[in-house]
């Protein structure tokens, strides 16, 4: 006889056509199971792609917003919350001879009910800067007589052609342009064609002087944009007055981006968790299909189909299903992404940074990644069942008892591994090592550990139930429990997947619910008093609240107290932060996470500040550390005496007592008042009385009740977490599909053995 | 039979089982079903093996086909020691040299009759169209050509067993291992199937090892053996079971 080595050379992978046909027919015979399997992967891939697209779009919107508003510059001169005087710009150009400098001013405006960003530019400076901004063609900034003539008039603006169309405007039209405090009649001087309409679709351009008028900020700038070399930086730093700051733009932008990154990672982790659930379900389904086809696989093996061929067959089947499901998942993800991007961008906009751009950015790599991830998951989940099918000898493939006993032996090992993973996960959650990524790794370990424990727990539970109840449940009951027990190899992982999905859903629900509860407590404490009076006009902002007005308000019946307060942006060593100030005692105001022993009294006596938890976490600031803020006398360190919970802003907040603020920002007028109503008085009546007095003082103030603010905040909160609701629902849907698929497979198996049962009767 | 006799016989015999021992586990108990069994089958010889249920008949077939490895002893086919081959080579050996006929037919439910037959040929490297053509010829000879496109679930027991015979013989194996081929058929159908099997075998050079507990079926073979208490013995002339 020929030597085996020569005889069988090259014949290992022959005959795959019929094997493949057999596998495809099997899938078609069990079409509902196949459809459910495909659906499970499709939803998993859809979630990853949708969240990825939405995250990328939000990041892209963030990057482009920064680029659009400031362009490619190296530095910015910034001042206090009131900005800086425009005379400074002239001095920078004339005294220092810095030619690559341009003034910057922007604000939110409303036109025909649409929220838009008004950007003020100085055409001459822009020409010297030669900075490119996305979507804006060079000729917008070209120093041409026509363009200067177009936007040089006091109330003239220009905008992109499609935006003008959507607002129903043509060149030469007049329209009302409103800010929070004032409305003006503006004129659309010209329209331009954008190279990226999605970027410039919410933007109005005006000459810097026109922008100052329209935004009610005469003589003021937000910042001065600069492109500087090292020598110029040194020169400028020594020249700048102490109350102004030269900030490096890239670092500041990175800081802003870093703050919203945790939010993106959270979303990604949630979508990956769904994919993990889908993976468990694929594993379960493939294991079931191998068990169901044990007879066929046994025949194949006896006929001379090699282990390698059986393995390849099972893997290829799943790769094919994975490919179909992944393609569908990518398409569905693309559609869902369109919907999610609005929610994600709204959240970033609410919490971190005003985004003038809301665009759906489709990165082909994200689609390809979704496709590959779906395929890899399908294949990886099928590897163990495929090995199980391939490594068993033909003769044992045909013995169900052997499969079950083998599985039951493994339950102990799986449970042990599960306990180890749970312990490993728990150890990683020790706070000293805490980081977001470590947290997610720990969570994944715990989820896997729990999954591995479920079959064992289920087996024990069923045995216990059988032991306790067999006297009362009769033969059908005993059969049902024994059947359930012997089917654990098929149902165990589906149950585990359902457990994971339900626990994630319940867990996230509890987390969001508890978070909401915390926000409500925080709102109660951080919105002291009942009414907030804020300056709404440039005059009031400049001059502050007059003594006469305070006297008038003091005479209202039912008003218990009046406090000055401040809420403004302040430059810091970490970039822009929000600064909150008032004279209310700390113990009545803060929802503190951490404080030193004398923290409350130190705060009230102006010996230090409190900072928000996100700021402390991201910048690794501890109690008694110092934080540098830009005061009227330049950067000054402030000792951190406490850390408070804060959900008003992701960019970080510093709170200080009025006495401390007075010391370092002495020339800043008070532009906010907090009014406290007597507990027994009618808040509405007091509000009406306050409004009557304010009407005498013109339109320089806004009055908002805290009750209203709380409602708005909770609305924003609910909108922010709406996305988690969508993801939770989808995760539970995937698990549900898995359970239905498993039950359907068991039902089919039962049906196959039914004729035998009937015969026995 | 001593070691020297075995070596001498194996030179002349086509299939040789030399001092085979094998057992299987049932719970915590080990059952030894074959105890130092030796057997020789010549080329084209038709051998029947009689034995009670659980006597180890099917185990013997598994050992000859290389599905199982003996705990002790060797199995050689035309001088090739099957026990020395690794798993993949044993599978490839089975693919080319062995044909199986089972009591419960064991056709692949998701392949049609002709595909079930052609699978063995395609596995052996034959082009799909040629394999189908050759399979159809055999199905015609077995008078089931009209069932070629049917799936097994649509066929009667007799038809299924004819397809199984075609599958076992289509690649002209060295030996056909038939495990109770008529055990699941009525008497008439069983006779027909057996007749067809012997007709086709008469034209091929394949050997046959037919496992049965039916005396009538056993008598159709040229040699009858019995397997009892783990040992094989030869039966000559009339015998009762």
Characterise this structure.
The complex is a heterodimer of chains A (761) and B (241). With 761 residues, chain A is of the alpha+beta class. Chain A is built from 28 helices and 21 strands. The model of chain B is unreliable at 1-12 (pLDDT under 50). With 241 residues, chain B is an alpha/beta fold. Chain B has one domain (41-69, 79-235): P-loop containing nucleotide triphosphate hydrolases (Rossmann fold). The radius of gyration of chain B is 18 Å and the shape is globular. The chains are: A alpha+beta (761), B alpha/beta (241).
Blueprint of the fold:
The complex is a heterodimer of chains A (761) and B (241).
Chain A: H1 4-7, H2 16-29, H3 31-70, E1 75-78, E2 84-85, H4 87-95, E3 101-111, E4 114-121, H5 123-129, H6 138-141, H7 145-151, E5 156-160, H8 161-166, E6 174-178, E7 183-192, H9 197-200, E8 203-207, H10 208-214, E9 220-221, E10 223-226, H11 230-239, E11 245-248, H12 249-292, H13 294-303, H14 307-351, H15 364-391, H16 394-397, H17 400-428, H18 436-486, H19 488-526, E12 531-535, H20 538-543, H21 547-554, E13 559-572, E14 575-582, H22 586-589, E15 592-595, H23 599-604, E16 609-612, H24 613-618, E17 626-631, E18 634-644, E19 653-657, H25 658-664, E20 672-677, H26 683-696, E21 701-705, H27 706-720, H28 722-760
Parallel strand pairs in A: 4-8, 5-7, 14-19, 16-18
Antiparallel strand pairs in A: 1-10, 1-11, 2-9, 3-4, 3-10, 5-8, 6-7, 12-20, 12-21, 13-14, 13-20, 15-18, 16-19, 17-18
Chain B: H1 3-12, E1 15-26, E2 29-41, E3 46-51, H2 57-64, E4 72-77, E5 80-81, H3 87-97, E6 98-101, H4 113-123, H5 128-141, H6 157-169, E7 175-179, H7 187-203, E8 207-212, H8 215-219, E9 223-228, E10 231-235
Parallel strand pairs in B: 3-8, 3-9, 6-7, 7-8
Antiparallel strand pairs in B: 1-2, 1-4, 4-5, 9-10
Helix pairs in contact in B: 4-5, 4-6, 6-7
